[in-house]
Specification:
two-stranded antiparallel sheet; two-stranded antiparallel ribbon; mainly alpha; 5 helices; 191 residues
């Protein structure tokens, strides 16, 4: 079996169930952006693994394991979004993972200095990659919200994606703080 099928050569793809749609269909945009986010999380875990080789005092194993759990859930949500369904949002609950994300955010945030300004993305490579994950996650959320105007989308999935972008923001701050990297802040007022 070969990787290429040639079925999409004319700009269409199959949803789960076989229906063919244009590759820029809103549903394809939604689950495709989740796939992109998943790839960016893969880069983040690789950076964390590389960091753990150089630092023995930072426990990355639990963090990497948690990120892999998130990646698996993104595959599940992407698969559910790839099903051509109308009017039904019967999906597996992600509320427990959302609660784990919230607990992780609370724990990391309690160890950080209070934030009074906008933070400019940067710092360690892993922290910078967290910001890439955050922004792709926000785009995925926008694509899923757009899809929700055409078909039922799980409110639990939307909450999960929204919380996930918050997680990547706090994780970036946490990684910089742990690496003794000062955050660059934006102090100008919005015009």
């Amino acid at each position: 079996m070969t990787v290429y099928t040639k079925a999409g050569d004319k700009g269409t793809t199959s949803l789960c169930g076989g229906k063919r749609v244009p590759k820029d269909d809103i549903r394809v945009e939604a689950y495709g952006t989740l796939d992109e986010l998943n790839a960016e999380i893969g880069v983040l875990t690789s950076l964390l693994q590389a960091d753990s080789i150089n630092k023995t005092d930072f426990p990355t194993a639990g963090l990497i394991s948690f990120l892999q759990e998130i990646q698996e859930e993104l595959f599940v949500i992407g698969g559910e979004l790839a099903v051509d369904k109308v009017g039904s949002a019967e999906v597996v609950s992600v509320s427990q993972l959302t609660e784990k994300i919230e607990a992780s955010v609370d724990k990391m945030e309690s160890q950080l200095p209070e934030q009074h300004h906008f933070v400019l993305p940067g710092g360690t490579l892993a922290a910078s990659q967290c910001h890439v994950c955050r922004t792709v996650c926000r785009r995925a959320e926008r694509r899923i919200v757009s899809l929700s105007t055409h078909t039922a989308v799980s409110s639990e999935q939307l909450a999960f994606i929204n919380r996930l972008s918050d997680y990547f923001f706090i994780l970036s701050r946490y990684l910089n703080n742990n690496g003794n990297i000062s955050e660059k802040i934006w102090e100008k007022a919005c015009r």
